[in-house]
Design brief:
Helix 1 packs parallel to helix 5 (about 165-180), helix 2 (about 80-85) packs across helix 3 (about 85-105) and helix 3 crosses helix 9. The chain has a domain at about 15-115 and about 165-225 and about 320-374: FAD/NAD(P)-binding domain, CATH 3.50.50. Helices cover about 30% and strands about 25% of the residues. An eight-stranded mixed β-sheet has the order 7-8-6-16-17-18-15-19, sandwiched between helices. It is built from ten helices and 21 strands. Bound molecules: flavin-adenine dinucleotide. Flavin-adenine dinucleotide binds next to helix 1, strand 15, strand 19 and helix 9.
């Protein structure tokens, strides 16, 4: 098995150090993935002093190891989201994610590609579901076209996008540092309250704290043990393929499988969790033979990609029952965000931004939609 390294890893890291000594700030953000970094961006834009820490580095977890799809809406397809959370909220959240994709592009120039995305049908049953999705989207003024290509038919969402997740997080980290945030890597929060975050070599004293952690959230915040559950998601990637095989990032089998072809031609392919659901509810983040075997077979047979596999990797995310993320003031001044159910690129950024605003007593339109006051 190849070492657990994502294709996005270009060997570059920002020259950051662990915290050594005590510091004082307005807000401390725990977790330097896309969500925590976006919270820091919003905080520093608002002129607040902010410190961010990560147990490892910049986006060492799911935020830097994902499929890179930037899709509109919640984890549910639009028609399902309407059933679960109601039409107004589903449409409102969809629009918010579209706006967030545009902001991610502005914050990380060059990382985002406005490709749209394709949902492929796996057969007659999924055809019906896809028709329902398209009908609901068009009824709500969301663009959705029919798609027919070499791999099959489905729908094309022209406003979706994709990105290189590590490039995005590194750009965001550089941006927040330039805006005055202090970032410390290899700095784990061993305990925390709303006003103090303790680490091995220093304490951060602050007025408020944002915990921005997706995978293993319930380990860091045991109060959420019944609300979120950690799962492992896995991917592989190939050497560059000269031919442009896929016009846009794609998903298939109700979103269980997903892939994109990177600008250099490599195919990054993930999914298959439904092939071993029980083993994938785990805190472990190492690739397994079973899921990797499924991915390899599907890559060869369904995607018809023959290029050698160069990367195999996994990471942790957490799921919620409702498919809506955790966005909660656990105790006064202690905000927790996470639980994106496998689709946290845009949703996590929205939560990070909303949590940053919440530390100043402001409520964003997105936060209102989440807590059902939309
Ligand atoms: C294989 C895979 C494919 C995916 N594909 C997609 C996709 O295509 N599109 C999409 O939208 N989403 C996708 N996701 C989900 C998405 O990656 C995540 O929801 C999102 O990146 C979460 O980012 P985050 O910043 O909230 O959390 P995380 O990436 O989990 O970051 C949290 C950070 O907190 C740090 N941390 C944890 N505990 C502590 C502590 N005690 N002290 C200090 N730091 C701590 C961690 O080191 C970590 O860096 C995928 C996920 C995976 C794993």
């Amino acid at each position: 098995m190849l070492s657990n390294t994502p294709i996005w890893d270009d060997g570059q890291s920002l020259p950051l150090s662990p915290l050594d000594g005590d510091v004082e700030t307005d807000v401390c953000v725990i977790g330097l993935g896309g969500s925590g970094l976006t919270a820091l961006d919003e905080l520093t834009t608002m002129g607040r002093r902010a410190v961010g820490i990560d147990a490892r580095g910049i986006a060492p977890g799911a935020a830097g190891r994902n499929g890179g799809l930037l899709l509109g809406g919640t984890v549910d397809f639009h028609h399902d989201a309407i059933t679960v959370i109601g039409r107004d909220r589903a449409v409102g959240i969809y629009r918010e994610t579209m706006d967030e994709i545009r902001r991610i592009d502005e914050q990380a120039p060059g990382a985002v590609r406005h490709t749209g995305s394709i949902r492929l049908s796996s057969g007659a049953g999924e055809d019906t579901d896809i028709t329902r999705q398209r009908t609901a989207m068009l009824a709500d003024g969301i663009r959705c076209e029919l798609y027919d290509g070499p791999l099959g038919h489905g729908i094309f969402m022209p406003d979706d996008a994709c990105f290189n997740p590590q490039q995005r997080c590194h750009a965001l980290a550089r941006r927040v540092i330039a805006q005055g945030a202090q970032l410390y890597t290899h700095t784990s929060a061993s305990s925390y309250s709303a006003t103090e975050v303790h680490t091995a070599r220093g304490t951060i004293r602050c007025a408020q704290v944002i915990v921005a952690v997706d995978g293993r959230l319930e380990t860091l915040v045991p109060e959420l043990a019944g609300t979120v559950r950690t799962a492992r998601l896995q991917m592989l990637a190939t050497a560059p393929v000269a031919e442009r095989l896929f016009p846009a990032p794609m998903s298939a089998r109700y979103g269980f499988d997903y892939w994109q072809q990177t600008p250099d031609g490599s195919v990054a392919f993930g999914g298959g969790r439904d092939h071993s659901v029980e083993t994938e509810w785990t805190n472990d983040a190492e690739p397994t033979e079973k899921i990797q075997g499924y991915l390899e077979q599907a890559l060869r047979e369904q995607l018809q990609v023959t290029a050698p596999i160069t990367h195999r990797w996994a990471a942790s995310v957490s799921y919620t029952e409702t498919g809506l993320p955790v966005f909660q003031e656990l105790h006064p001044g202690l905000w927790v965000i996470g639980g994106y159910s496998g689709t946290g690129n845009a949703m996590g950024a929205l939560c990070g931004r909303a949590a940053a605003r919440a530390t100043s007593g402001e409520t964003t339109a997105f936060a209102r939609l989440l807590v059902n006051h939309g």
